[in-house]
Amino acid sequence: MKNDLVPIPKVEKGTSFGDRLKKMIGNKSGRAFAKEIGISYSTLHNYLTNVSSPTLANLELIADKTNADIKWLVTGTEPDVIEMEEGHDLESKGSINLLNNAESVVFIDAYRSINVSAGFGSFNDGVTRPDGERPYAIQLLVELGASASKCAVFWAKGNSMYPTIHDGDQLLVDLSQKQITGNKIYLIQNEESVWVKRVKISWDGVELISDNKEEYPIIKIKPNEAEHLQVIGQVIYVGHALI
Question: Exposed/middle/buried for 19, CB within 10 Å: 0-12, 13-18, 19+?
Answer without folding.
Answer: middle
